[in-house]
Structure formats: C-alpha cells, structure tokens
Amino acid sequence: MEKTTGSVVFQIGSKQYKADVGDLIQVELMHADVGDSVDIPQVLMVTADNKVWLGDPFVDGAQVKADVDSHGKHKKLIVFKYKNKTRYRRKQGHRQNYTALRIKEIVTPV
Questions:
Q1: Is it the case that residue 83 has pLDDT exceeding 80?
Q2: Cα 93 to Cα 38: distance, rounded to the nearest angstrom
C-alpha cells in the first residue's frame, strides 16, 4: 500500500463522493465523535501519479483516511404538496443531518 495525494471516488452508505487530500466534505451522518479518525474501505476509483485504479465494485487495498471535523444540519428544505381545485395543501420542512470529514490521506494499491 502506498500513500498518495491524488483524487478518489468512494462510497458511504448509498451515496458516492469525489474528493482530494485536504478536502472538507459533508457526508451522511456517521456515529463518530469529533476528532475521531475514520477509515473508508469502499473505494470505487483512485487516480494518482498518472495511474488509474478502477474497482469491481471496490478497489482492493485502497482506503481513504479522514478525520471527523464536525456534525451539523443542512439548510431547511420546504416540501410543499398541492393539488389543484381540491383545497389540498401540505407544507413540511426537512433538515438533513451531516458529518463533515477532512480527507487526511488516500492509500492506493501497490
């Protein structure tokens, strides 16, 4: 395994994210304390030093190491349902929780 400074596409839960070393990304809520180190083995693609590794579905030996920076909530979304001529209106708000991760390093396969 080799440390690198390239970019990576990885998966957390059912969503995929693209990141570089040093990026701060907001992912689905993770149950980890602020300051904890998180290893993400579900790496779909790694690019570094003019090389590309594609997974089937995941790249063997690749890993993303990140630190939990903070937890929070996104801006409020308004969900409004309306049906014409029937006096039907429903207004509901939603705020999704997130975890902010700072990408520390990308480990590539040898």
A1: yes
A2: 31
CA end-to-end span of the chain: 5
Neighbour order of strands in the sheet with 51-54: 15-20, 7-12, 43-48, 51-54
Scan for tokens 């992912």, then name that residue.
27
Name which of 41, 47, 44 is nearest 21 in CA terms.
47
Task: Answer whether 1's CB lies under 8 Å from 107's CB.
Answer: yes
Cα diameter, the chain: 64
Question: φ and ψ at 70, to 5 degrees?
Answer: -165, 170
pTM: 0.82
Single-letter residue type at 107: V
Full residue range of the structural domain in which residue 47 is found: 2-108
91 CB-near residues (< 8 Å, 6+ apart) = 78, 79, 80, 81
The domain total for the chain is 1
